[in-house]
Amino acid sequence: MFVFLLLLAFIGTVEAQRVPGQQKTDSCLCKINSSIWTFPTLQFMEVTRQVQICEDKLNEFEEKLRNTNAELPMMEATLQNISARLKTFGYLHTSGLYSALHLRQLNQELEDIHQSVNETHMQNSNKETHNLLSELNKAKNDVQRMYKDDFFNLETMKKRLRDLNNRAQSCKTIPNDFRSTCHQRIMTRISSPSITKLNSISKSYISGAWGRDAQLSSKKRYWEHCLVSGHKYGNTIRMYNSYEDFMANRNYKDEQIASSYSDKNAVQGSGTILYDNTVFYQCYSTAEICSFNITTKVTKRVKLDGAGIDNKFPFCYYSCRDWTDIDLEADQDAMWVIYATEENHGNIVVSRLDPLALNITHTWKTQLFKRSVTSTFMMCGVLYATRFVNTYQEEVFYAFDTTTGQEINTLSLPFEKVSAGIANLNYNPVDGKLYLYNDAYLLAYDTFF
Prior knowledge:
Elements: E1 2-11, E2 13-24, E3 27-30, H1 41-87, H2 91-94, H3 100-123, H4 127-148, H5 154-171, H6 178-181, E4 189-198, E5 208-212, E6 222-226, E7 233-234, E8 236-240, H7 243-248, E9 253-256, E10 267-275, E11 278-283, E12 288-293, E13 299-303, E14 327-330, E15 335-340, E16 347-354, E17 359-369, E18 375-379, E19 382-390, E20 393-401, E21 406-408, E22 413-416, E23 424-428, E24 433-438, E25 441-448
Antiparallel strand pairs: 1-2, 2-3, 4-25, 5-6, 6-8, 7-10, 8-9, 10-11, 11-12, 12-13, 14-15, 15-16, 16-17, 18-19, 19-20, 20-21, 20-22, 23-24, 24-25
Helix pairs in contact: 3-4, 3-5, 4-5
Coiled coil: 44-78, 103-174
GO biological process, one term: signal transduction
Protein name: Olfactomedin-4-like
């Protein structure tokens, strides 16, 4: 007697198996293939491995997602910053490099330069003013041609105008006796430090300025100014009536420039200079120059158009001091302001400052990127720039002559320092020395032509 048994077999998926059998006495005998119930070990191990891989990748993805969520605010802020900076160049996607607005601006700049040169030519006609007028007329014709076709590159024309403007500024700048006092215009050597000492307040004050009154007929007064609030602000200047008192840190007087570090007339940055008993410096948190007369206690202000502030265009990349956007300098002939603007692509701009009227009289635009420079100073109407060599050495590598409008990139005048960071470097025409605020150290050098 045959009996069919319905058994369940698990092969991958559950399915039924019919097995025939034969009854003998009281038993039912049947042959069953038990291999169909063998556990699929290899398949199970593979599935387990895939599950583990999937879990690892899921954990990795979750970690990346957490990191991305943390970085998103910073990425968004960066994107907004980039978008804001690129917004002014949006015209490139619509009207191309040239637009009527930019050409009108070029035309207006040309007209301003032409008027300035023409006035100088009327007052003091010479070969240079005649040549400048001819070149300006040619440039005006070229701009008119740009209205009709894109024959001239806009940046090339702007560079051309910068050079013409520098020559125009130089043309009306040179006093009759200027060359007699600075007949040899380019410096040739800097000595080893002739003075080396710590500032008189604290070694922790790594930013500031110091020197001697830079007015040629002034008394022999030394000064010291330390930034004591976050290496950014200050409101007093320490005065000494003799070199001996300065070296001994005695008999000094702390003159109060402003009532507090956050007063609108407080000092910001280390670009301070003393000229004719008057402190010249960047006013607190603004693109303005302040002058504070120590005798009369009167403060004056003048706006410095376009100047970057609040670490927008500070000096240098290596071992730098912050808050060096605006640098005040003095030499044999004038007061000077050194800064950078967006319009000049972050390159150094030099302006001549009338110290009495406190207004800008002339402006030159260089092609030297301000962040590539550690410090600057003026000597005989020439701007000098230094760069970092190593912790104990600096090098004057660049000069711009405001008298000729020429840039010199071949200088190599090394000088020693005692620490890496430079906060201020200024030249004094009275004694011909360079005064360096080198972290907390005060150093002075002799200069040679």
